[in-house]
Amino acid sequence: MSTFNLFITLLVSFLLSSFVSSYSGNDVQLWCNQTPNPQPCEYFLTNSPTHQYKQINQKSDFLQLSLQLVQERALIAHANTLSLASKCRNPRETVAWTDCVELYEQTILKLNKTLDPNTKSSHVDTQTWLSTALTNLETCKAGFYELGVQDYVLSFMSNNVTQLLSNTLALNKVDYEEPSYKDGFPTWVKPGDRKLLQASSPTSKANVVVSKDGSGKYTTVSAAINAAPVISSGRYVIYVKGGEYNEQNDFTRRSRAPPARLHTVHMNSSEVTPCNRLPGDFEVVTAPVIAYWGVQ
Ligand SMILES: *[C@@H]1O[C@H](CO)[C@@H](O)[C@H](O)[C@H]1NC(C)=O
Ligand SMILES: *[C@@H]1O[C@H](CO)[C@@H](O)[C@H](O)[C@H]1NC(C)=O
Ligand SMILES: *[C@@H]1O[C@H](CO)[C@@H](O)[C@H](O)[C@H]1NC(C)=O
């Protein structure tokens, strides 16, 4: 075996890689099949002139492409929602519609932030922004149901943005890396927060305590979040005691008030099931040991 063989191999792989400058329908199918919603993924990637012929060599390329796709579809969905103003038949429908316009705007902001090359974001940040974006869309839909007007305007708003967004969440999650630790805490936990969690009675430093066993003020994280003040002069700390909190679906409710800025939720337990969908005002970062929820 000689250098010559190696050279040939290198040359062949070089040639191959330069040929893979655009993808065929089959490639798209292969990549999309790794997502929870392959149909809309394939449908839009094969039909959109903007996204055709982009190079996909690795998963990160595909994630980038999927993010661009969902951004494009969300912009279209936002424009479509705006155009439906005159279709609202009554004040309740108008309220639900107005909320949706804003929620689509918020979704686009998160997507733009995720895609902005100047944003220095970790996988966890990206996951947080994408989850918030997804929650916004669910809240939009839930608004029509809550107000009992789901039968008309909502049907004109049908699109595949939710599915495409879920795909990006799934793709990003694969690349999730465990955070690094210092003194038993993930490095992103700020020193002040570390002190709080290490205090001999951290619950006494919290504004409210959530506990499954009823020893706190609330038994669910969502109840504590929904009851948190909109404006707080300092940091508002919700301490969540160890236990299993399976509340993903309760977080679709968004506070209609101006964004609360200073909320933090501390969770003590590796047993706590991390919830990653929180109302728009909250961001979530989960870690195996504790989870820290607050606004960045
Ligand atoms: C959603 O995606 C499906 C393919 O999965 C497509 O047939 C349908 O037209 C899309 N809907 C919209 C509103 O674009
Ligand atoms: C988000 O990005 C798109 C595409 O670059 C741009 O057209 C849009 O104005 C941006 N929206 C906001 C709110 O930044
Ligand atoms: C976390 O919870 C465990 C039991 O669930 C308890 O022993 C421990 O002291 C708690 N840690 C803090 C910092 O509250």
UniProtKB/TrEMBL annotation:
Main location (coarse class): secreted
Keywords for this protein: Aspartyl esterase, Cell wall, Hydrolase, Secreted, Signal
Subcellular location: Secreted, Cell wall
Pathway: Glycan metabolism; pectin degradation; 2-dehydro-3-deoxy-D-gluconate from pectin: step 1/5
Pfam families: Pectinesterase, PMEI
Domain Pectinesterase inhibitor intervals: 23-171
InterPro entries named in the record: Invertase/methylesterase_inhib (IPR035513), Pectin_lyas_fold (IPR012334), Pectin_lyase_fold/virulence (IPR011050), Pectinesterase_cat (IPR000070), Pectinesterase_inhib_dom (IPR006501)
Residues in the signal sequence: 1-22
Annotated SUPFAM superfamilies: Pectin lyase-like (SSF51126), Plant invertase/pectin methylesterase inhibitor (SSF101148)
Any one Gene Ontology BP term: cell wall modification
Domain of life: Eukaryota
GO MF assignments: enzyme inhibitor activity; pectinesterase activity
PANTHER family cross-referenced by the UniProt entry: PECTINESTERASE
Family: In the C-terminal section; belongs to the pectinesterase family. In the N-terminal section; belongs to the PMEI family.
Stated name of the protein: Pectinesterase inhibitor domain-containing protein
Organism: Vigna mungo (Black gram)
UniProt lineage: Eukaryota, Viridiplantae, Streptophyta, Embryophyta, Tracheophyta
